[in-house]
Amino acid sequence: MTENELQRGARRRLAIIRHAQEVSHNVQKTCRYYGISRSCYYRWLERYNAEGEAGVRERSRGPIHSPTATSDEVVAKILYLRQHYHFGPQKIAMYLARYHDIEVSTSGVWRILKKAGLNRLPRSQRYQPHAKRWKRYEMPQPGHQVQIDVKFVAPIPGVTKKRYYQYTAIDDCTRLRILKIFERNNQRSAIQFVDYVCERLPFRVERVQTDNGGEFQKEFHWHVLDKGISHVYIKPRTPRLNGKVERSHRIDKDEFYALLRGVVIDSSKLFNEKIREWEQFYNYDRPHGGLSGQTPYERFKQKTSTKEPTVTEIRQPYNSVGDPTQQECNLALATSSSHLVLW
């Protein structure tokens, strides 16, 4: 209840008391006229005589003791995540369950935000509805498609003194990301980055998808094909087709670059050290809403350990030695895990 509503209710109660004392001189008639009970009138009158006009203000109707109420410590964590990271109720509940073993429902988080006046984000960060929706998709296995894009990092006051270029690669299936900072944005940097991605990812890349930027043109295209990887371009002026990497850049802006305050970065080497730490957190520790709360690495382990057999594998006769296809899957998983240790 707002302050104006409290003042309006107090003026009404004071008017009822004065009506009985100065106009009707009869409590029963006044109560019948205003539609209240006599016990309610006398309760207001007692408070008015004891405290004055402050006594007729609306009081809290909540219980005096709430044993099951959310503790102040949990409320502080919820408000901190909202104010510093702009997380929604679902992601806040996800973080509390994962990192603090605190179970709070999504609706409970929303009520806490509503009470604190933080249930609505700033206009620039609200969800923008689209007139035409597009179909979401996800590749079935790691490495089937990797989206690559470039984020332009403008000079940050007090942090960076020149412009850098963040090259980003994200696996369409697991959301595993590889990040690297370059001082120049050209085909040479793009070629170095795709080689770096192929070395770092724990699986073979089958296809690379990029936009039509100048850094991804002929030299880059033929270099990718020479590595045995197909390269496809998205349609012009349709960044949504590279939606996963575009959305990850927004996460970088909200959760990484927004917190780079007071740290002076004047070299690409230092910048790469910082962004490597952020990459490790994103891949191994940060729960992903699009993965039902899993981290990208957890999704990778799930996909590689529960591979569905193909029709050819089902038709292969079973023998005492064991299914060679399953042995190959186990070997591939062990090899992938050994690569991940080197990250």
List keywords for this structure.
343 residues; alpha/beta; Nucleotidyltransferase, domain 5; 13 helices; 5 strands; 9% strand; disordered C terminus
Textual characterization of the structure:
The protein has 343 residues and is α/β, with parallel strands linked by helices. It has four domains: 3-56; 72-121; 146-291, Nucleotidyltransferase, domain 5; 307-341. It has 13 helices and five strands. It has helices at residues 3-24, 27-34, 38-51, 72-85, 89-99, 106-115, 187-200, 218-226, 243-255, 268-284, 296-305, 311-315, 324-341, and strands spanning 146-153, 164-171, 177-182, 207-210, 230-233. Strands 3-2-1-4-5 form a five-stranded mixed β-sheet. Helix 1 (3-24) crosses helix 2 (27-34), helix 5 (89-99) packs across helix 6 (106-115) and helix 7 (187-200) runs parallel beside helix 8 (218-226). The protein is elongated, with a radius of gyration of 31 Å. The protein starts with a helix and ends with a helix. Residues 314-343 have low confidence and may be disordered.
Low-pLDDT parts are: 314-343
Beta-strand percentage?
5-15%
Characterize the quaternary organization of these chains: single chain
CATH topology of the largest domain: Nucleotidyltransferase, domain 5
Q: How many helices does DSSP assign? A: 13
Measured between the Cα atoms of the first and last residue, the distance is: 54 Å
**Biggest beta sheet summary:** 5 strands, mixed
Large-scale geometry: elongated
